[in-house]
Amino acid sequence: MAVLLITYALNNPDQDYSGFHDTIKCYGSWADLSESTYAVETDVKPTAIRDKLKEHIDKKDQVYIFTLTAPCAGIGSLEVKKWLSKRL
User: Fold this and answer.
1) What is the CATH number of the domain that holds 80?
2) pLDDT of 23-78, one tens digit each?
3) Counting runs of H as helices and runs of E as strands, what totals does the chain give?
4) What pTM does this model have?
5) For residue 66, what are the β-bridge partners?
6) How far apart are CA 13 and CA 68, in angstroms?
7) Residue 57's CB: how many other CB atoms inside 10 A?
């Protein structure tokens, strides 16, 4: 399985983005890396996830999905670091 980095800027304060976040979490094991970034372990292609997330965003929003590989480094939650090192 691949680990994908999903990063985004949701720019419409009047929009309900709960479906956006629920969609990210439905793809498998995930870690919340920051306020606008998730890592997701999944077999689903980045383009397929992008197409599903597109249903929940505003035209002014931005979403980018990248495939992660080791090595990686970061400062933050020990739980997230463990999650990443187990999967990369």
Assistant:
1) 3.30.70.240
2) 999 998 999 999 999 999 999 999 999 999 999 999 999 999 999 999 988 999 99
3) 3, 4
4) 0.93
5) 5
6) 30
7) 19
Structure tokens at 29: 């094991």
Residue 79: CB atoms within 10 A of its CB come to 10
Question: Residue holding tokens 């998730």?
Answer: 38
Of residues 84, 76, 7, 6, the one with CA closest to residue 45: 6
Structural domain harbouring 57? 2-87
Contact 24, 53 (CB under 8 A): yes
Token pair in block for residue 4: 């994908």
Say how many domains are in the chain: 1
Residues 6+ apart with CB under 8 A from 71: 88
Burial class from Cβ neighbours inside 10 Å (0-12, 13-18, 19+) for residue 7 reads: middle
